[in-house]
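A student in our group prepared the protein record below, which I am reviewing. Thanks in advance; the entry in question is below.
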Amino acid sequence: MKREANDSKESAADKVIKTMSEMKGATADQESAFISPNTARPRDSILEKKNHHVSSNHSRFNRLIETLAELGATADPGSVFIYDDKLVCQPDLGHHFFLNQESVGRNRAEACCELLDELSPSKSPTSWFDDTLESYIEDCDDLDGFWKWNAYMCVRRPESADELVSGFCWNFYVPMFLVQTCGLVATIRLQIRELSVIPTTHSDSLVNLRLDCPFPSLSAFAKSFEMDTLERHEHAHIPAVVIVIQFLELFKSKVSIEETSIQSSRSAG
């Protein structure tokens, strides 16, 4: 296992370069998803036909599994893998939707997968493992499977578990989100390994991303929000960039009017 991990570290960059070269000239299969008051949030499309791995099936992941179950009733959420080495106890019944009194004493992952299959039958398979994801990774011989991961999210995981998985995520260019919560206080860390790109175009031909000169799609997105007609609770969901762009446009229009009046007064004088 360790020897294969070391070999994977050396070949990681080569694999990424090969993958990037194969993608050159290919049509991108992802489109930017702008969210406005008139458009639905693209939650379902993000989760469709993906491989979902859930480690330590505690209450923090309860909402995620419920979302997968809701999606399974109408679409294809992809395959679901749940890793948990704990048994169901009485406190678990109070905050877990997929556990009942008959689940006490059973493996949490097994009980959860059983009810998840009943809620969305004849859909994509669910699998359970009576160990943690970290143990599964340690015993895994095919580390190339990490290349198929879109992201890895750690919520209130022990530091030792985060360190173990973060090494593989770093080697295989998988973004990793680490979340720790304590009451109303929370921290979110992001680990992502980017490829260094050397620009080959002249600096004058680069796209201007400054907010005072928004690109067309961003400008159209900002104009789609009519703040005067929105309710109070809807104002809380307006992206900050929209507010900034709209007030910049308002400021530029006022400055333009003042400059025009000053020039007119000077010409008259």
Remarks:
- The longest helix spans residues 240-268.
